[in-house]
UniProtKB/TrEMBL annotation:
Protein's recorded name: Acyl-CoA dehydrogenase
Domain Acyl-CoA dehydrogenase/oxidase C-terminal as annotated: residue spans: 234-389
Cofactor(s) required, per the database record: FAD
Acyl-CoA oxidase/dehydrogenase middle domain location: 125-220
One MF term in the entry's GO annotations: acyl-CoA dehydrogenase activity
Organism: Ornithinimicrobium avium
Keyword Ribosomal protein attached: no
Length: 393
């Protein structure tokens, strides 16, 4: 059965020290200014956070298939201090590195992975479009093969890590033809930053995740070599769905970090804040709500690390893809909805102070909502769970 080892806990302490020392003192300022601290990415690379599942030949830890639970620990601990920095790591690995590592050619891996794994560069994952979110199969971006080059036209929306000073590449899905049954043939294509016709739109003004880098992307006759096709032609949609299965577990780990922080903040504040001459923690109306957050933290953590363990077991040939998909959807659904609930409760416990930006619960309250939306909405997770149960979804 799954259980985090002492090595996991030692690694947790390492990441927590980094997050509390390098992120926590500055996070309020960065959030207020919507500033992405690009200098932290190489520092995270030096800790090995981007290479936990990458092969040693590309600078990784060489724990292919067995480092995922460590990645979840790192995302949880970064997310405990700031959700935006947690998503920077999650997207950098799950959406940036993993598609190239899993489906890339030898040449593609050698070109892109060493810098990505080291944290010298970041990569984006271009799936969502202005009119194709949950219905990712409705992709309108097109890529036509002309004279040995893919000519890409279209637009992508809400793409993380896509416009930083160190973003090196974005992998995008595009229609490359039509299948015999009339459905679109969707392929994945690597588009390097700086490609003529590839435009990074201004950063979004977001409700939360102010520190995270998020842009819309436009492609107008962007030309890349035919060799930039990632994996097999026509398999891009399947590749990205598999990528999202893994990403859902990682997003759930980010939610665990949020819930844990709310538990710590409310426990401390309820014992310090006096009302009617005594700490508000003595009131059952407060203590019961904090107890609910504790249950959410324990349950979410158990679901996340069970799913991570199953993924590692699947890589070893001991569990099925269906088991992992179901566990990922369950973890993502419960943990992200619990994260939103925990921030709402925490804001209520803090009262008027919870509405003030100088208290972290306000930032976490803003940041939490996107967890129920990104990498598959709660509705999509329920649909997947129903399908896994054999129900008509």
């Amino acid at each position: 059965m799954f259980e985090l080892s002492q090595d996991h806990e030692d690694f947790r302490r390492l990441v927590r020290e980094f997050a509390e020392g390098e992120i926590a003192p500055h996070v309020q300022e960065w959030d207020r200014e919507s500033r992405f601290p690009v200098h932290l990415v190489p520092a995270m690379g030096e800790l090995g956070l981007f290479g936990l599942e990458a092969p040693e030949e590309f600078g990784g830890a060489g724990m292919e298939g067995q480092g995922f639970s460590y990645l979840c620990v790192a995302i949880e601990e970064l997310g405990r201090v700031d959700q935006a920095m947690g998503i920077t790591l999650e997207a950098g690995v799950g959406l940036g590195i993993n598609p190239i590592q899993t489906y890339g050619s030898k040449e593609q891996k050698e070109r892109w992975l060493p810098d990505l794994v080291a944290g010298r560069t970041l990569a984006g994952f271009g799936l969502t479009e202005p009119e194709a979110g949950s219905d990712a199969g409705a992709t309108r971006t097109r890529a036509v093969l002309q004279d040995g080059e893919w000519v890409v036209d279209g637009a992508k929306a809400f793409i993380t890590n896509s416009g930083t000073d160190i973003t090196s590449v974005v992998t995008v899905t595009a229609r490359t033809g039509e299948l015999e049954d009339g459905r679109p043939e969707i392929s994945a294509i690597i588009v390097p930053s700086g490609t003529e016709g590839f435009v990074v739109e201004p950063a979004y003004r977001k409700l939360g995740w102010h520190i995270s880098d998020t842009h819309g992307l436009t492609f107008e006759g962007a030309r890349v070599p035919e060799a930039n096709l990632l994996g097999e032609r026509g398999q891009g949609f399947k590749q990205f769905l598999k990528t999202l299965d893994d990403g859902r577990i990682a997003i759930a780990a980010l939610a665990v970090g949020c819930i844990q922080r709310m538990l710590e903040e409310t426990t401390r504040y309820s014992q310090e804040r006096l009302a009617f001459g005594r700490p508000i923690a003595v009131n059952q109306g407060v203590s019961f709500q904090i107890s609910d957050i504790a249950v959410m933290a324990e349950a979410s953590r158990a679901l996340v690390y069970k799913a991570a363990w199953l993924k590692e077991q699947q890589h070893a040939g001991k569990r099925s893809v269906a088991e992992v998909k179901q566990a990922a959807a369950i973890a993502k659904l419960y943990a992200t909805e619990a994260a939103v609930s925990s921030t709402r409760i925490a804001t209520q416990v803090f009262g008027g102070n919870g509405f003030m930006e100088e208290y972290p619960v306000a930032r976490f309250y803003r940041d939490a909502k996107i967890l129920e939306i990104g990498e598959g909405t709660s509705e999509v997770q329920r649909m997947l769970i129903a399908r896994g149960l054999g129900l008509p979804a």
